[in-house]
Every structure is written in C-alpha cells, then in structure tokens.
Design goal:
Structural class: alpha/beta
Number of helices: 8
Strand content: 15-25%
Helix content: 40-55%
Order of helices and strands: EEHEHEHEHEEHEHHEEH
Radius of gyration: 19 Å
Largest sheet: 8 strands, mixed
Distance between the termini: 58 Å
Number of strands: 10
C-alpha cells in the first residue's frame, strides 16, 4: 500500500495484548488505511496472534495485516529487528514502530509520515508534545533518561527513548542491524545513535502519549539498568573518539 506514493508498514510487537490490539488495528484502519501492518507476537498466552489473524481475515480495507509468530518472549528489540528485516524483504519504503497498547495514537501517525526524513521521532518532550495519565515518577524517569542520553551522546534529540517513529528503508539498509542487541529504552537510543552516526536526517514531531488503560506495562528495572549502562558505554566511546580526533588535529597543524 502507499502513503504519499510510499509503501508503509507498521510494525507492532505484542505480548499479551488481546485487550488492546483490536482497537489499535481499528484506529490504524481509520487514520492510515493505506498502511499495511505486521504484528510480531512473542507467543502471547492470551491469544493475541489468533485474534489478529481473525481480524485480518475479516479486514475490508484492502491493506495487508500479517502476523509473525515467535516461539517465546524474546523482547522488544529483537521483535523490531525481525520486523525491519521482514519489511525490507517485502520492499516497503517506510517502516513504522508503534506500540499495541494505545499509548501511540494512530491519529498522530499521518503527521510523522508527512515529514521527509530518514528517521522521524514522535516526541513527547518537544514543544507541542505531552503525556496523558502518567504518574510524576514516570515523567521524571523519561525526561532524565533522555537528558542522560543527550549529554553523553550529543544526539541533539529531545526524545531518543521514544518508541513511536518511522524509518526510511534506505536508512535501515545502511545500519548494521545485526550488531544491535539492546532492548526497551536502550534499543530506541541505540537506533537513534546509529542513525546519527550514519549521517541520517532526524526530525522530531510532537505527539500526545497516552498511558495504557488495559494490560500490563512491559517496562522493568532490568531494561532501565541495561539502557543506562549501554548509554554510558556508548558515551565513553564517543568522547574517546572526539579526544583522539583533537590530538590528531593538533599534530596535523604543527
């Protein structure tokens, strides 16, 4: 299918999202009916994959809704990576990351797709962006994580941990995706960091992020710690390369 003459695939990782995935698919059909959907399901015990397949069989929009079933709970990062690989293999032009739980609003997706860039991030923390129904500690955690990543990596991005984003397939083909092993917050920062290193044009678009009203969040302490450790490691490498460059430049000017 096409959006502005582009073939668009929305990749949605799921684990026990039977309560929310139906509404998410319906809203995508309403707001971006021309976009195809790939649900990457980690063997959800609640029958998420079965529900999506039933909905796909009854879908009258003309879009493709596919399900990729995995053998167990293998994590968000690997779900997106297999989704990227599937998208590239099926020759999509733009790949969208989107949650199944309603926190990423389908009505915001046209604004992301309207931007011509290698990576478009749906940002909560730029002017015009906001969160709804978040407890204060979640906001502090997210803002702090983004400040941490921005200072250590010099990303120039206000919401590097955001999971609502679009990638140009040309960018994904340039990135060393087989080297990406991070999850959760860390995966999003990792991908942003690699995009920046690849010289990608990155644009942020304000969105409204709505806290889920059904199901359980997959965020946990381990994912947060992994992200902090990874960002510190990437930051140390980045600063070391900068310092080495200064020394090389100094020797060359003599």
């Amino acid at each position: 299918m096409t959006t502005s003459r582009r073939r668009v695939l929305v990749v949605i990782p799921t684990y026990d999202e039977a309560l929310t995935i139906g509404v998410t698919l319906d809203l995508l059909a309403e707001h971006v009916p021309e976009a195809d959907v790939l649900v990457v399901d980690d063997a959800s015990p609640d029958g998420t994959a079965d529900l999506v397949e039933r909905m796909a069989a009854e879908d009258a929009t003309g879009r493709q809704v596919a399900v990729l079933r995995r053998t167990g709970k293998l994590g968000l990062g690997t779900a997106y990576l297999v989704g990227f690989d599937w998208a590239l293999g099926h020759e999509y032009d733009t790949v969208v990351e989107m949650d199944a739980d309603g926190s990423h609003r389908a009505q915001d997706l046209p604004s992301l797709l309207a931007v011509e860039a290698d990576l478009v991030i749906g940002s909560r923390w730029m002017p015009g962006g906001r969160v709804v129904n978040w407890p204060k500690h979640r906001e502090v955690l997210s803002r702090g994580a983004n400040l941490y990543a921005r200072v250590l990596l010099g990303l120039g991005v206000k919401d590097a941990t955001a999971g609502f984003r679009t990638y140009a397939s040309d960018l994904l083909r340039r990135l060393p995706l087989t080297e990406v092993a991070s999850q959760g917050y860390g995966f999003q920062v990792d991908m942003t960091w690699r995009a920046r290193q690849a010289g990608a044009r990155i644009v942020e678009v304000p969105i409204v992020f709505v806290e889920r009203t059904a199901g359980a969040s997959k965020m946990n302490r381990g994912i947060i710690v992994e992200a902090m450790v990874s960002v510190a490691r990437w930051g140390a490498t980045h600063r070391a390369h900068q310092i080495a460059g200064l020394f090389r430049g100094g020797r060359g000017s003599r």
